[in-house]
Amino acid sequence: MNTYERDCVLVWDEMSIKSLLLFDKNLDQFEGIVNHGGNRRSLDIASEVLVVLLRGMNTNWIFPLSYYFSKGPTTTQELDILLSEVLKNLQRTGLNVRVGVCDQGFTNRGLFRRWNVTEQKPFIILGDNIIYMIHDICHIIKLMRNHIKKHGFFVHGLQDDAPQPDNVPQPSSDEVGGEYASWKYLVQFYEIDSSSENRLAPRLQKYHLEVPDLAKMKVKLATQLLSHSVFAGIKTLVELKKMPAEAMGTANFAKVCNDMFDFLNISQQHDPQNTLKSGANVFRNMHMLEWFQEWASRLEMTDGAPLPDCVRGLKLTLSGTSMIIKDLQSRRYKYVLTRRLQQDVIEHFFGTQRSSSGCSKNPTARQFSQNFRFLFVKSLLKCGGGNGNCEIVEENTLLLNSMKRMESFLNSEIGNNLMPSNNSGDQNQAFEDRSDNEFEELCDDNNDPDRSDYQINDFFNLLSRSDIAIKDYNVATYLGNWAVKYIIRTKKCTQCIRMLEFSCDRNPPFFSPEEKLLSNKAYNENLLENHQEQGFGHVLKECHRNVFDLVISEFRPAVIESLNSAGTNVSVNVFNYLKHNFEIGEWLSSYDSTNCKKHREDIIKLVVRSKLYLLVKEKNQQVVSSKAMSQTRRELRHQ
């Protein structure tokens, strides 16, 4: 292994197990007791297991290192002893642990105090090595969501000379400074958005605001609420005078959280649409991280409550990440994937453990130990159903090559010290993480799925329920732009591109009231001003834009009519209904070539399919909501 391959991240977390004492006659030992390795065992029945895991800093290897059974959460003192032993053993192997990552559990906070880890000194020194200690940003974002609901946030005014990001849109100091972030405006936005025909934030649902207890740990529910889509939606309603101007404080808070998560969740070297998510731009965006630190330092609770631990953890994480990036830059790293500084990999390991035990949420100590060994042999990690609270590791082969390169470091003597229970030869294999794009690929966990490529999933939540209004014209325009650009990109038609024009070539104002959502969706205001084809500034001409307003307004009667039409092809029947509209039919017939006629039909059909998908999803959600309401009424009657 070269120097870069030896750089790694140490991640630790705890998982609940079923308290069950067993005796294994083959091994002639108890299973399910407290076991911290060596001579640190007792007959107390374990209820938690602490797992320590390694992953490469910028290389694709993962190694579940050790596990320890405890009665209840591991105490701060025990955690200090165990992790100190692990770090010293790893140092002897030649691996370079650069970062330690954990959640904000009370024992981890106590450990940081014990190690004197603070915002000003977010690291420990072991020998000649500096090891940075940070908290998992995913847990912090979830806690920020909880506290804006419980208390609300107030952001003091930033200084006029506060650092501003380059090439990345960010609220200016007068926009963010001295503003309140209130839960009521998020609720108000959802009520306005969900009651209209078309959705500004299509992924936002009621369960984002009324999160069930079992779903509070889902990262996507927090990141989709504090997202760029919500920011753009609230800003659009404020500009349309549908919401008060004070709501912009909440919108700006959501945008800062979104941009901060983007920066701390980088999974690819290059992202031309959003420079915050590009690993190669990390070093150029360091002033952005400093701006986030300044913003976090000015947070207070609206109701005067003490500053919660999540804000202090956020400050520590931002400070630590800043030092980590500077350290890696001095070591001549060309890029940094900040997603490697999260706990997703260990959460995935826990999900695989549970699914390996027959979808048991709490495996026994015996099952956990067996699964731990099995995962090295099987090395096929995939969470059941794809609904896990972590990234999906797409793995089809054993990491034999990397293990051969590591075997000189992980010798048997040290391996026995690191793995306290049931050590065997097959544990000296590991698995590789090749999936750094689970948020982008699955969309379910994406903190902001409305990317500039206008993914079709963004529009599955468009539902017709009322007469079209100015807000719905905005959605229709956004949908029309997406559909036209999608067909142009896939069909590579040089004639259809004439339907677009550059907004910067228009007379001011460059965007009409019907295009406010389209302009607010841009991650970078510079994208609206340049001549990049099919970019945010490349928009539909007004003569073509009006067609999509008609498609949206006529969709509901078209669906009703299609239900009783001949044939079972709903989308075909809806399209046939729409093309009989005079203006839509005229637009379909005014083409430059035979291919363009087919392309225009494809554009309308694409919009129709998107709306139909939403209709199905919305109806299913109504059934689920109805069942939940009926269950609540039954429970109230029993009380």
Account of the protein in words:
With 639 residues, the chain is α+β, with helices and mostly antiparallel strands. The protein is built from 23 helices and 15 strands. It is 46% helix and 12% strand.
Topology at a glance:
Blueprint: H1 3-6, E1 7-16, E2 22-24, E3 29-31, E4 33-35, E5 41-45, E6 48-56, E7 62-70, H2 76-93, E8 96-102, H3 106-114, E9 123-126, E10 129-135, H4 137-150, E11 153-155, H5 173-176, E12 179-181, H6 183-194, H7 206-209, H8 219-225, H9 228-239, H10 248-263, H11 286-297, E13 299-301, H12 309-330, H13 344-356, H14 365-378, H15 400-406, H16 412-418, H17 438-442, H18 470-491, E14 500-502, H19 516-520, E15 538-540, H20 542-563, H21 570-579, H22 582-589, H23 594-638
Parallel strand pairs: 1-8, 8-10
Antiparallel strand pairs: 1-6, 2-3, 4-5, 6-7, 9-10, 11-12, 11-13, 14-15
